[in-house]
Specification:
alpha/beta; eight-stranded mixed β-sheet; about 30% helix; elongated; binds pyridoxal-5'-phosphate
Amino acid sequence: MESYPIENEKLKVLKSLPTPSFVIDEGGLLMNLTLLNRIEKISGCKILLAQKCFSTFKLYPLIGKYISGAVASGLFEARLAHEEMKKENHVFAPAYKESDIKELDTICGHIVFNSLKQFKLHSPNCHKASLGIRINPEFSTQNHAIYDPCSFGSRLGVRLCDMPDELPEKIEGFHFHTLCEQGFEDLEKTFKEVEKKFKKYFPKLKWLNLGGGHYITHKNYNVEGLISLLKYIKDEYNLQTYLEPGEAVVLNSGFLTSKVMDKVFNGLDILILDASAACHCPDVIEMPFLPPIFETSENGKYKYRLSSMTCLAGDVFGDYNFEVEKNIGDNVIFEDMALYTMVKTNTFNGMPLPDIYLLKQDLTVELIKKFGYEDFKGRLG
Ligand SMILES: *Cc1c(COP(=O)(O)O)cnc(C)c1O
């Protein structure tokens, strides 16, 4: 668990907002974007926002000022980037519907197919987009089974043994994505494997997409190593490189505000919050991980289990040590809550969706979206 310093002034503003709310931190976002922009400029690589991680499109114009575009996981995300970012627009999906592919071909500059069958089926209907296939390097560097596309039985990507001797003519690029919150060293090892297995096809290609999962904006990331690998790929093989990070774009760029509704005791003190892990940040339970929280530390004197207002017994954020006592009516502010949160919320138990705010660099706050009963009801009939 990691906490990053935010000034008291910021905390004061966060505590003044209605709960629960997501608050996007413009300052944090800009720090990430500035680094990504530098990497683009020095390496010649193009960086795309993976929208499945963050799709709060109000921020797309700002993001589009710093990086080259976005990548979608299907038609809806592709439309969103087309309408709201209006820059490079790529799409990858394990399969496409015939009814979607014509529109994708008109709004996406790049379409990546997951199999040669998908490519054969849809490529006759693609006339504008540059087409590619996803390859499976069969080289695992992580232990999160559900995030490992190289694991046994994975449906993601074409393995070397299934590649034809000659690439179909319309294939102009390769895509691989195997990492999740990983450093440069794992990318380097993976690329070496890709190079060893697939380089005979490189002369036919125009671009290589190295996927996401790069922890680029994390403090220990080897940025210079990444830049030299990207330059090497460009110089050695004359390929346009792409990276499509999600997390790295919005790491440490948001908060979730909540309020203590009740405090009960059952072997330990339990705070019942108006935010829910199951509804507002399901990755906390799925992955699982312990989100950082303001006013907590390893040795904090006040130990609480944080849970929520739903009826799910396991709707628990985790156990925390607070430096201050928390009572009914107090705020609890979660940090690093921009990634894989707003895109994954649900209204299970009739829980309200958190409103979305933007906290600007000058500490003024702008309401992006308010949700209510109609958003709960509207999805159900
Ligand atoms: C999830 C995903 C990404 C983004 O991953 P992050 O871990 O958020 O950087 C990029 N590309 C593909 C194909 C993905 O599935």
